[in-house]
Amino acid sequence: MTRLTSLTAIVAVACMITPVANAADLTVNVENIAQTKGTIMLGLFDQATYNGDGAVNGASLKVEGTSVTAEFEGLEPGEYAVRLYHDVNDDGEMNTNPFGMPTEPFAFSNDAKGRFGPAKWDAAKFVVEADGTTHTITMN
Amino acid sequence: MDLSRRHFIEAGMGASLAGAVGVSFGLSASAKANSMPAWHLGYANAPAGGFDPAPMKLVFGTPPSDLKGSLYRNGPAHFSYGDEYASHWFDGDGLIHRIAIEDGQAVHQARFVETRKRREEQAAQTFLAPGFGTLGDESYYVESADDTNAANTSVLMVDGELLALWEAGSAFSMNPETLETKGPKTWRDDLKGMPFLAHPKVEPDGRVWNLAVGGSRVGIYRIGTNGALEDFGLVNIGRAAYIHDWTMSERHLIILVQPWINESLRPPVVAGFEWQPQHGLQMLIVDKDDFSNQRWTQAPARMFFHTGSAWEESDGTIKFDVSFYKEPILGVGGGAAEIRGEWDQSYFSEEGVLTLVEIPPQGDAKLIETGIIGEFPQVDPRFRGKSRNLVALASGASNTRPGSTTLAVHNWTSGETKAFDFGDNRIVEEFLFVPKSGGQSDLESWLVGPVLNIKAGVREICVFDAAHVDDGPVCIWQAEYSWPLGFHGTWA
Ligand SMILES: [Fe+2]
C-alpha cells in the first residue's frame, strides 16, 4: 500500500513536472465574427480525438466584438486541430435546420473546409511548437 | 394548327430577320465558328455580364394595349469554359431575364445570379462545383447546399421581392429592377440553408406554398402575401423520390411520390436515380389547415417533371393536369449531348403526355390521357387551385432539332385542343397566362412567352390570345440577339 502510494505520488509529481518541462503554449485567435453576441465554442483535438466527441482541451469564449482569443498552456508539442462553432443564441448547441445542416457559423483551424462533411484532419492540423504557437482562424 | 398563318409570319418578318442576323453578336458568331448546328444557340453561353436593357423590335402584329408588366424568366445559361462542357444542362448557371412590356414596347435585360459556384468558376474559368450531372472538383469545398446552388430553374415574386429558384438549396433574392443578386433567402433563422423547390404554388390572393425536399422528408412552407413565413411543417413521404414539382388545390397539397428513387443525393446526383415502377405512383394528400391530416392514393407508375394545377369537385374528387412519362427521361447523359451540339432523332425517347388525374374521395386515382404531347403546363394564375378551362403547353417535336415546335392549349371543359405550330425554325418555351384587363374567365387572357428563332439566330417574345392560339400570334417582338433556352418564368 505504501509502495503504491509512493508510486502514485511519484507519477503525480512527474505528471506535474514533465509537461511544464516541455510546456508549449497555444494562442488561438478567432477573427471576423459576424454577430456580436453569443459564444464561440472551441475544441482542441489531436489526431486520435479529431473525429470523435472528446476534445483534448476546449474553451468557450464570450463574443463581445469581432474576435476572441483562446489561450492553452502546457500542451504537449505536436499536431493539433481546432473545430469551433459560434453559439449565436447561447443555447449550448450547434443548431441545425430540419434536414440537419448547421444554421450557426462554424470553422476549422487553417480555415480548412469540408466537402460534404467536416474538414479532414490533414487539412485542419497544425503544429504547436515547444516554444509556443499562435494560430488564427478567420470566420466567413 | 394553321400552317399558312405560320408561313405568313415567316414571310412578313423576312426583311427584319435578315437584318437581325447580321447584327446578332457573340452567341451566334461563336456557334458558327465552332460549326455548331443552328439550334445550338439554345445551349450556348450567354455573355458573362448578361444583357443590359435593350428595346425589342415589334416585327409582327399589334401589341394588346392592356398588356403591362414584366415577364421574368430563369434558365441555365453558361455551359462551357474553352473546350470543356458542362456535364448536364441542369448545371448551367442561372440567368435571370426581365422582359418589361408597357405601351406596346418590350425591353429585355438579363443578369446571372451571383452564386458562389458562379463567382468561383468565372474567376477560375473552369467548372468546379458538383451538381446534378457533375462530380465537381475535389478542391471545391461544400459545407452547405448553397455551395452547389446554380439558382437556374425558376423565379418567384413575393411582396415585391424577386427570388431566383433552384430546388436543392435556398432561393436567391434579386433586385427586380436591376436584377442584381442580393444573396440567399433565409425564411426563418432555424430554416437557414433549407431547400426551396423551384415550383412554389401561388394562391390567387398571393399566398405562397412550397416544399423543401430532403430524401423521404418533405418540409412545407406557407408564406403570406407580405412575404413572411407563416408556417413550416414536416411530412414523411416514405421514400426518397425525386420531387421537382407537385400540385395544390384550394384545400389540399398533393405530393406525387414518383417511383424514381435517389437515396444518395451525392454528386453527380443523376447517377443515383433508380426507376422502381413496382411502387406505382403514390400520392400524399395533405390538408392545408392541418399537415397531420393526410391520406394516400395511388396510380400506375409514371414519371413527371411538371403539373398544371389541381381543383376539387363538390363531391371531394381532386383533379389535376400533369405531363406524364411512362418512364424517366433526362437520365445519365440527358441534356449533356445538346450542350455539345449533338442531337439526332434517336434522342427521342419518351414524351410527356398531358394527363388528367382524378383522385376520388376514396380509392385509387384514375389517369385520363389526352394524347397531347407537351411540357411546361401552365394555367391562369386567377384559377390556381380552382376549377378552370384551359391548360397551355409547349408541344410538338421537330425531327431536325431538340425542343418544342408548338404552343398548344387544351380546354378541359369543351375537350377541344387548339394549337399553333411554329415549325422547325422556332423553339417554343413556357408560355404564361396573363389575365386580360376586366376579363372574368381564363378564356379571357393572353399567353406570353419566348421562342428561339434559330433561322434568324435571335430571340422573340410572342403574345397569343389564350382562347384562340390557332389564330397565331397577336404580336411578336424581336431582340437583336439570342439567349439560351430557359426553364420557367413568372409574370409580375
Ligand atoms: Fe420545372
Q: How would you explain this protein's 3D organization?
A:
The complex is a heterodimer of chains A (140) and B (492). Helices cover 17% and strands 36% of the residues of chain A. Chain A is of the alpha+beta class and 140 residues long. Chain A is globular, with a radius of gyration of 18 Å. Chain B is mainly beta and 492 residues long. Chain B has one domain. In chain B, the strands form eight sheets. In chain B, strands 22-23-24-25-26-27-28 form a seven-stranded antiparallel β-sheet, with no helix packed on it. Chain B is globular and about 55 Å long. Chain B starts with a helix and ends with a strand. Mean pLDDT of chain B is 91; it is low at 7-32. The A-B interface holds A 95, 97-99, 101-103, 106, 113-116 and B 138, 140-145, 189-195, 212, 214, 217, 219, 232, 234, 266. The structure holds fe (ii) ion. Fe (ii) ion binds at residues 153, 198-199, 244-245, 305-306, 487-488 of chain B. The site of fe (ii) ion has 9 residues of chain B, from β22.
Overview features:
heterodimer; A: 140 residues; alpha+beta; Immunoglobulin-like; 5-stranded antiparallel β-sheet; 3-stranded mixed β-sheet; 8 strands; 17% helix; globular; disordered N terminus; B: 492 residues; mainly beta; 7-stranded antiparallel β-sheet; 6-stranded antiparallel β-sheet; 34 strands; binds fe (ii) ion
